[in-house]
Amino acid sequence: MAVNPYAWIEPSLDAIHRANWRRSVQEIQGMAGATVSLEGRTVINFASNDYLGLAGDRRLIEAAITAIQTYGVGSTGSRLLSGHRPLHRQLERAIADLKQTEDGIVFSSGYLANLGAVSALTGRRDLILADQYNHSSLKHGAILSGATVIDYAHCDPGDLQQRLEQHRDCYRRGLILTDSVFSMDGDLCPLVDILDLADQFECMVLVDEAHGSGVLGATGAGCVEHLGCTGRPVIQMGTLSKAFGSLGGYVAGSAKLIDFLRNRAATWIYTTGLSPADTAAALAAIAIVRHEPERRARLHQQVAYLKHRLAAHFPKSASEASGFTQLPSESPIVCLQVKDAATVMAVGKHLKDAGIFAAAIRPPTTPTSRLRMSVMATHTEAQIDQLIGALRQYVAR
Ligand SMILES: *Cc1c(COP(=O)(O)O)cnc(C)c1O
User: Fold this and answer.
1) Which residues does residue 107 pair with via DSSP β-bridges, in sequence order?
2) Are 225 and 298 within one domain?
3) Whole-angstrom distance between the N-terminal and C-terminal Cα of the chain?
4) pLDDT digit string (tens) for 9-65?
5) What strand order describes the sheet that includes 174-179?
6) Burial of 147 (C-beta count, 10 Å sphere; 0-12/13-18/19+)
7) DSSP type of residue 296
8) Is residue 15 in a domain?
């Protein structure tokens, strides 16, 4: 009898299960927003990347519907063959204007933008220096490129410099990769130091603004703007699926860089163009980000309110007693570190029972277990108070 070549899957799944690492989906019903329906119950949503509350915005919905009525549902081909629409170019121009770069290129997701850009910019003779906490898409882009990849300690320019001194000379091109806002911690990369080191050691820099775009900077251009680095030679990538409420990814930079990516980024060349609906919704979102800075101001007010309330009720000095340690964050991603995986799962379950949806994150996703809360511009103080109340109840129980 023939051996079943798929037989290995079941024991592998069992091993994942035994390690408490098995993941499954949770069903959200109804419209995206600050409250959602989770498994049939209305909960306050602190687990969304929709920072500005745009995913359910009327104007994005109408733009998407109009685009479908005008162009149909699919874009029917790759951008270089038959999949290019005027909307794509408008979106790329809007991204370049927001980022104050010469040009931009839109991919079907942020993940694909990173895979395509990193693997196009570097090859076997090159060196990639990467923050150890970078997003999976940067890590896999680096692997795909075939370059030598060396991780440096998280947000540590001293360690980066040491590794550049030790290794840079042995390679052709150098590329430094970093998230701007780290997605599981909410802290910011030391971009000024990184760009200075890049100048000194002749390296390119690609910064992943997935959680920075639309959120940070006076005009919402991202962490690059927030840290005063606009106009410096840095490749900015990001996603259209977080603050911009839609789907898709992009790279913004010099006209030559973008032209090169159109010719060399396999994840752009050999895939179908972004759908008309997603493209139009992202375009509407960028217009809102530009013309309604009050949404961003409101987001930062709510972030400050949450951090203030957390610091008041779970002060650092009493972290032993509460079991919660607030991690440093300069973004709408706010984390409470807890002792272990079992504790974070218990906190997550307690919150869910209290009508609050926040992410319980445990190893191997992050080195330590933490409750991750992401704030939206459309959260009310009362909703944040409910979150605090539920956390206090957990500590007191
Ligand atoms: C979400 C995310 C991505 C991927 O973006 P998608 O558009 O969702 O594929 C890339 N980098 C970081 C840091 C992210 O958080």
Assistant:
1) 249
2) no
3) 58
4) 999 999 988 877 777 888 999 999 999 999 889 999 999 999 999 999 999 999 999
5) 103-107, 249-253, 235-239, 204-208, 174-179, 127-131, 148-152
6) buried
7) H
8) no
Cβ(181)–Cβ(153) below 8 Å: no
Closest Cα to atom 14 of ligand 1: 210
**Residue 214 CA to ligand 1 centre (angstroms):** 14
Tell me the best of 118, 138, 180, 241 to mutate to test the pocket of ligand 1, counting ligand atoms within 8 Å of each CB and taking the most.
241
137, 111 Cβ separation under 8 angstroms: yes
Q: Is residue 332 part of a domain?
A: yes
Q: What is the CATH number of the domain that holds 385?
A: 3.90.1150.10
277 with 162, same domain: the answer is yes
**Span 283-338, pLDDT tens digits:** 999 999 999 999 999 999 999 999 999 999 999 888 888 899 999 999 999 999 99
Please indicate whether residue 190, judged by its CB atom, sits closer than 6 Å to ligand 1: no
pTM recorded for the entire structure: 0.96
Rounded-to-integer distance, Cα 54 and Cα 59, Å = 9
DSSP H or E stretch at residue 171? none
- Spatial separation of the C-alpha atoms in residues 388 and 248, rounded to whole Å: 34
Are both 206 and 241 inside the same structural domain? yes
Do 197 and 247 lie in one domain? The reply is yes
Q: Which residues of the chain have pLDDT under 70?
A: 1
| Residue 8 forms part of a structural domain | no
- Looking at the fold, whether 328 and 301 belong to one and the same domain comes out as yes
Spell out the residues 6+ positions from residue 365 whose beta carbon is closer than 8 angstroms to its own.
Answer: 184
Which domain, by its residues, includes 180? Answer: 64-291
Q: Is 297 inside any structural domain?
A: yes
